[in-house]
Amino acid sequence: xxxxxxxxxxxxxxxxxxxxxxxxxxxxxxxxxxxxxxxxxxxxxxxxxxxxxxxxxxxxxxxxxxxxxxxxxxxxxxxxxxxxxxxxxxxxxxxxxxxxxxxxxxxxxxxxxxxxxxxxxxxxxxxxxxxxxxxxxxxxxxxxxxxxxxxxxxxxxxxxxxxxxxxxxxxxxxxxxxxxxxxxxxxxxxxxxxxxxxxxxxxxxxxxxxxxxxxxxxxxxxxxxxxxxxxxxxxxxxxxxxxxxxxxxxxxxxxxxxxxxxxxxxxxxxxxxxxxxxxxxxxxxxxxxxxxxxxxxxxxxxx
Length: 303
Description:
This protein is α/β, with parallel strands linked by helices. It has a single domain, classed as Ribokinase (UDP-N-acetylmuramoyl-L-alanine:D-glutamate ligase, 3-Layer(aba) Sandwich), CATH 3.40.1190. Helix content is 37%, strand content 25%. It has eleven helices and 13 strands. It has helices spanning 28-36, 54-62, 125-134, 147-152, 154-162, 171-178, 183-191, 232-246, 254-271, 278-281, 285-299; strands spanning 3-6, 10-16, 19-26, 42-49, 65-73, 79-83, 92-97, 117-120, 140-143, 166-170, 197-201, 207-211, 214-218. A nine-stranded mixed sheet has the order 5-4-1-8-9-10-11-12-13, sandwiched between helices. Strands 3-2-6-7 form a four-stranded mixed sheet. Helix 1 crosses helix 8, helix 8 packs antiparallel against helix 9 (254-271) and helix 9 (254-271) crosses helix 11. The longest helix has 18 residues, at 254-271. The radius of gyration is 18 Å and the shape is globular. 43% of the residues are buried.
């Protein structure tokens, strides 16, 4: 059940049509870990500065997230500032201050090297390769990336892609990476690079999940209250990988992967209901189960 995530922890300053916040908790590893923690224990590898709140670290620990791999470095924490217009699928970056994250060189604690499930968050492909070299015999490795790395380090990124089992990516990125506009063709082309599965995040349009000979489409949950889509994709990945890790010990079936997609979508749907990680911090298992039932009702039909 050991689930390892490597990614960023950050402060975010966000403006959307529904409000504005300054220097709230964010980062891919933060969202991923919180989402996955409702399903399985998590091992987190990242770096923060001395300014990162101790109460946030205590909250993460209380959720069963192992922080042995977190480095607290001299300096200040990674900070991202951006905004959304009414198209909440598009984040506009105003400013990115890497700060201590600029020199992030993750070294896994000895106990982490036996992790069976690994998620390589949206970081430099060189660091993703470094992590892969440190993990001994993982059962499933998944990765996320972004257009910055697709443009800056395409060869290194392809090298990582050849070494993983699952790529979790959004629709704009998979089109840029493969040069294919059609998402099914793009996913098939990406799978030919190495991974057995491609999971395409489509924001308010849901998720498209492809494997050899299989296509599964999950809707996005129709919400009346949306404040902030930041971290929704990372929360999806956390729920997705968290469910797979929770099934360790049994052979994973195609239905397990479909259920993982729904768990990811359900947990991510809570993230957007508030700014930052506020909604993720206080979920109950009853709320998650109720949202899963609602997802089932969305698509159930008989002929």
